[in-house]
């Protein structure tokens, strides 16, 4: 087992690859071996450095009699399975034992071949063309990408499905990864919206599209704060059943009980529209400057083995379903990778490995994955990845370590108990190139009708450590930030916060898991998780997690805290004004004074305030004292908590104190003892009234004379 939880030594895995090799021979459009065709396509790729030349390398396996002695290259649409009389070859070579056929890519023209599949044919004596090879798509669309920056990295794998109204809390928690749903329908427009007032004009492959400005603004309201917080963002691409989207829905038919639908590649219009939308999103959200926020990971669908609810394309066989999903996956892949070369594209699967969903209208995750991978490989292998949901089984029990999940190939479920089996299986079958993100899982704080926050926190700590020490896993994204009342009604209290009942998802009180989550990837990891060892019945984490070492956490991140102090006179003060970020407030600058107006309708437990990200890190070594005056009004609370934060990469220094509402108070923070004071890249000042007191409509927060300096004497 390479990383993850301990397993019993000597266990052997049962390989069933032979069965699937035989099965592949019967899948439509797929061949068990390229040698079944007279010609094998060995590669189909954009020539390196050319950006506009596609090279199809072939090898002759056998002769086809009665031909004119040439090989002809054809480009077909994704939906086309055979040659038609109207098709013309796009290149010709004399038949040899091996050779290369070449053609222009013609990217972003009406004749673009980016999403075409190529095949070799011969011309028979009657003048008709006959296919003599299987199909192959371009396998390296990244060769033409405009953006080629390195894939972003984070200091740890700690992630959360962030409630974006609580971005200040997410920063407090040190969230490194997050996920957002992108409902593709929202970007499509009705005819009356297809103008510059409501939509962005986007010309793609000779056709003009209009994509919704409102949808972009709503998404950017989430993405921009996440980018400013240095989170790596995963987008889950979903399609609802709406009349304006019928040409993008596989099968084109709506059905009751379906949440989301598969994407259509049934004709040229559908393929081009899907590719246009994905190219638009990639150009906007994968651009190097991250002007609108950044998306690095793209997941096509949600738990797609559960087709009856989450990826409906009709009542299909597994082979047909996998082929259609793989086809839409490839269009999404080619579109995004041709914009940003290092983007990662994922298939989404649930924990139901060898068992169908209770609804029955599903396949198993394993069979879906294997049929999907085989479909891709048969027509040009690309670097797909896996977004997995290893919830406990059942979801209402956080104690995943006693799940029925096993490390055998026959295991019904894959949970955090046996996640190492999954990553080892992927390495054996598909190589080390497949990356895994655990994009959704959670642990309830109520089990058997009883509240047990310690058990929830212990389950999270154990699961997180398993993921952190598994080298195939890149992110562990917890579901969810705040308990959701609809889930609570089902016995699922999965949040870091309880819900107050004021709305479906309204933060009430922090649970124990909040503190564990905040510190688990810092130098205080041991302190906040030691309690869990008794619950788990062991004396050290290394008894449970292969490769576990505390050294990893001393290098990740740190949090240091102090109390705000009464103001001292400063020497050589330097102004730090001009804010770049706002948290639940509107900002007005008046000389050396900043006036903040708290927005109404937001959670009462949230800190409000401002932040400033420096273009170049600031050195506070010679001026370690930071001074400011603050005054609050417009709340029934008599006291309020104030904190000023200093960030240096993943390291945080936080100074807190209490002030009296209605009175101007001068306070200071001293960074002298902080190791990272010489390289501060961001500061924040945040405020919250005591208790759950609200801000009224006349509320204001006034910050004056923010300065850095040194204490006199």
UniProtKB/TrEMBL annotation:
Give the top-rank taxon of the lineage listed in the UniProt record for this protein.
Bacteria
Gene3D superfamilies reported in the protein's UniProt record: Glycosidases
Recorded coiled-coil stretches: none
Pfam families from the xrefs?
DUF5722
Domain DUF5722: start-end pairs: 151-543
Q: What protein name is recorded for this chain?
A: DUF5722 domain-containing protein
Q: Which organism is it from?
A: Candidatus Limivivens intestinipullorum
